[in-house]
Design brief:
Elements (H helix, E strand, L loop, with lengths): L2 H8 L19 H15 L2 E5 L5 E5 L10 E6 L14 E3 L7 E4 L4 E3 L15 E3 L8 H19 L8 E6 L13 H4 L3 E7 L4 E5 L2 E10 L15 H11 L15 E9 L3 E10 L2 H22 L4 E9 L3 H4 L4 H12 L5 E4 L5 H7 L6 E3 L12 E2 H19 L2
Parallel strand pairs: 3-8, 3-9, 9-16, 10-15
Antiparallel strand pairs: 1-2, 2-8, 4-7, 5-6, 7-17, 10-16, 11-13, 11-14, 12-13
Helix pairs in contact: 1-3, 3-10, 8-10
């Protein structure tokens, strides 16, 4: 089976995760892909293949040499983002992309244009997988899964490539920040690992945001509007006031590189009750703590204005910058960089403006930088995946295993 065939099969599964669920996985439908992957991994010849009670899939490619070598792992997530539907994905391959607009749905006027997405122009002449304009594609991170599975199949078919013990892990719920929470690092048993969950060809990431969530709950006082003067507290209006007090220039759409932000994910409410949900991000740990303090302080300011207990701000840390855990073992970065160069890829070391399971895993004792999976414009209908990037990412996995096998 080709890597493209694998990928197209995986995106046929709707694996969208859900923010407010209290189970792991957060959606029952993620189990279907987990079970399929278990069968597939067994079918290509991996051992110790299992699914645990939370739909985490683990497998082993045994060493084919007696030489003592570190155990390396490769990880990808099965879920897709709650931001956009992943149901009934209808992928299409654009052959030999010509650099122009890609019409996704002519009738609906949905077009992916290099005028808005100039990164398309880096892939002129390549075959590109796109959506029909009504769902995301799912390259985040089903491309990563396909790359890992294909690499394992390649190594099995090429026993002349000597390697140590290799572990594979696929997890649910990365998109809601919970992918690594129940990942069994001890069972995985690796000296280090890589997530295949980055974007553009050549990306290598070992820095990421510090991350927290903020839930703002507003309790109002409902009174007949005809007699409401000096009595009513309109929860919906207080919620909008809270939002107006957050720094307008510190949002995702106005920041880049190492700049942090407050991101309003959603809001709802009426006179009696209202709520806002934020995520807070910053690469710098001290600035991250200041951002959380500000979010809480805005709530207290409104409580002084409208009465104690009107606004409740609940903050929860999600993950931290993995750099501090990777720096002591920088040889794993050198191995990945050399593997890319082996494949003729120019590495692009960058900081993640987001998170990755690798950040949480690094703090659980498994150093785990992130390697490109090849897709772009994640979490929306303009997502696309250049096929050469998909293929090269899989060969980077092979080359990492080969390089570790030379130690």
């Amino acid at each position: 089976m080709t890597i493209v065939e694998r990928f197209l099969k995986y995106v046929s599964f709707d694996t969208q995760s859900a923010e407010d669920a209290e189970t792991t996985p957060s959606t029952e439908k993620q189990w279907a892909l987990a079970r399929f992957l278990k069968e597939e991994l067994e079918g290509i010849g991996l051992t110790e293949v299992e699914i645990d009670e939370h739909a985490y899939v683990y497998a082993t490619l045994p060493a084919n040499t007696d030489k003592p070598l570190p155990t390396v792992g490769f990880i990808a997530h099965m879920d897709t983002s709650p931001d956009c539907s992943g149901k009934d994905v209808k992928p299409r391959i654009v052959k030999d992309y010509d650099g122009g607009d890609i019409v996704l749905d002519e009738a609906a006027g949905i077009v992916t244009s290099p005028k808005k997405f100039p990164e398309l122009l880096d892939h002129v002449g390549e075959d590109i997988i796109v959506t029909d304009g009504h769902t995301l594609l799912g390259a985040d991170d089903k491309a990563g899964i396909a790359e890992i599975v294909q690499a394992m199949a390649y190594l099995i078919a090429h026993p002349e490539i000597k390697h140590g013990r290799i572990r594979v892990g696929f997890n649910p719920d990365e998109e809601i920040g919970l992918g690594a929470h129940r990942f069994n690092v001890e069972k995985f048993g690796c000296d280090f690992a890589y997530t295949m969950d980055g974007g553009e060809l050549g990306e290598l990431e070992f820095e990421n945001f510090n991350a927290a969530s903020a839930k703002v709950e507003v309790t109002g006082v409902s009174v007949h509007p005809g007699y409401a003067k000096n009595k009513m507290v309109n929860a919906a209006r207080v919620a909008t006031e809270y939002a107006s007090l957050m720094p307008a220039a510190e949002t995702p759409e106005r920041t880049a590189e190492y700049e942090g932000f407050y991101h309003l994910l959603g809001m709802s409410g009426n006179v009696e009750k209202a709520s806002l949900t934020y995520i807070i991000r910053d690469h710098d740990r001290a600035r991250f703590e200041e951002r959380k303090e500000y979010a809480a302080a805005v709530g207290e300011l409104l409580n002084k204005k409208y009465g104690a207990g009107t606004v409740k701000v609940t903050l929860a840390d999600q993950y931290y910058n993995m750099r501090e855990k990777v720096e002591p073992v920088m040889h794993i970065i050198d191995t990945a960089l050399d593997a890319m160069k082996d494949c003729g890829i120019q590495p692009r070391v960058r900081a993640i403006r987001g998170g990755t399971d690798g950040a949480q895993l690094s703090f659980k004792g498994l150093p785990c930088p992130n390697i490109f999976a090849g897709g772009l414009n994640f979490h929306g209908p303009h997502e696309f995946l250049p096929i050469p990037s998909l293929e090269k990412a899989s060969m980077v996995v092979v080359k990492i295993c080969e390089r570790v096998g030379r130690n």
